[in-house]
Amino acid sequence: MSARPEVETGWVSDELRDEFPELQLRHLAVAARPGRTPREVKDRLRTMSNRFTGARAVGLRQEPVPWAYRVFFRQVGIDPDQHRTPVEAAALERMRAGGFASRNLLDDALLIAVVETGVHIVAFDADRVQGAPGLRLSEAAEALGGPGGRPLSDRQVLVADEARPLGVLFGAMAEGVGVHPETERMLLVTVQVKGVSDLEVEEALWTVVEVLRAAG
Question: What's the predicted TM-score (pTM) here?
């Protein structure tokens, strides 16, 4: 079996660090390509759907990890009852659709991770990220992805590399930095907040890696 990749800690701007001392960006790079979902992963989704009952969906927000992200959402000015945390959004879609639908290998891996751990992972094409990723606030007149991108509001929390904003925290991703059909290396990124342990974050990241490896 291949060794687990190393989980690394990204940078956080001083301004964000002062306000949220326990805020961290965790990431790892993995050699993996997107593609179709193999049968064993689809079976895992079906099993997960059957075990995820209405009672679990109703009580989800009171579980420690989802609750920690709800608290953080409010701290950064996001209403979690209007803009759902990722795990709550997945739960609502499960109840609406009657199950967790398979889409493709990467999306299914990210879905399994967030439902099983409560921790949201995003994936970038590792070869399109310039330097180390981190967290910072947007600057005046800045655009998502750099000049020509979607204008950003001042002081939005961003996932960024050393050259440009890669995405709005728990929001839109810049064009051209996501995983695409020719991707050979993915950078998996998550935000760790107060109340979420290293073990929970690492479990989520490794879950994605293990599902991706299921396709060989």
Answer: 0.94
